[in-house]
Design a protein that fits this description.
By secondary structure, the chain is an alpha+beta fold. It contains eight helices and eight strands, in the order H-E-E-H-E-E-E-H-E-H-H-E-E-H-H-H.
Length: 250
Amino acid sequence: VVNMIRVATIIASIGADTRDVLSRRDAGGPGCDDDAAGPACGTVPSPRPGVLVSVNTRRLASLAAEHGCVLRLAVRIGDYLPEGADLFVVCGGGRHGQDDEDRRRAWRAALYRHVAFETERTMEQDAAFGFRQLVDIALQALSSAVNAPTTAAQAIDEMHDLLRRLVTSPQPDGCYRDDDGELRLVMPQYDAGDYLRLAVEEIWHHGHASPQIPGRLRRMLDDLHAVARPEHRAAVKAWCTRLSPAGPAA
């Protein structure tokens, strides 16, 4: 029990959970243009207030195919929605019953069965929540009340491994198709720049005067820049430049 509540153990556990989420992400695909879903013809509101924690992409794509439309998720996994706010934008026309109240109610009920809300974020499909927890641990460690920069450095090291996995992998496109290859579901995704901003920005703001933190962040970013795939390299280099005017070699 004593070992389980040590901060190093907690950091490692969050890292392991985040790696598991990342390993289950869909591989990057051919992508889809902003206009690929077609014109918006309706919306589906959130049935309750809460954090969107998971969606069943296969079933949602199947439902969209059955109704001849494309669903565009209005928020990312891990975002909070008040009741009645847009959950889906329905695009491309189709037979989803927007002109009939009973059919519209049945259509929405079918969609709601394949989304899950909670009162707080979870790690089920939300890799960004793992980063958020690690950053929060680092910020608490850097506070004047705690003053434990080594703990913050441990959190940075854990994120270093997670970010390395991200920048050396294709970016998921968030586009899901039916069995015939037709686009049916579009989900907004965190990209490498989003994860980098989450991992670096606040820690740099609160820890740039620490003897340990700037060097730890710069070493992490230099390593990420060296191994990043071409599509992620610009996002990494931007942070290298921001934290160190010289930046890495082009």
